[in-house]
Specification:
4-stranded antiparallel sheet; about 35% strand; 1 helix; single chain; elongated; alpha+beta; about 30% helix
Length: about 80
């Protein structure tokens, strides 16, 4: 199902099959931000792309970098919202 423009991430950070997306939820009082973490891989048997919630130790090292970038982006977005 395609995402509507309102549901699209405001920022996405990727490396290999790992992806950290930042989403924005508007409320009456402020904008709230959340993150989604995905690990995509191509199944060797079927050739299809799949998503998993499992991460290898190497994935965790990469995720820490992507999560840091997402955090910094949220800080900037919040500061822009206060301007």
């Amino acid at each position: 199902m395609p995402k509507s423009p309102a549901n699209r991430p405001v920022a996405t950070f990727k490396q290999g099959g790992l992806e950290v997306s930042v989403g924005k939820n508007q409320t009456k009082s402020s904008d709230l931000y959340n993150t989604t973490i995905r690990n995509n891989y191509k199944d060797d048997k079927s050739g299809e792309w799949k998503e998993t919630t499992s991460f290898s130790p190497t994935d965790l090292a990469v995720l820490s970098q992507l999560a840091s970038r997402a955090f910094q982006e949220i800080v900037v977005l919040k500061q822009q919202g206060r301007s």
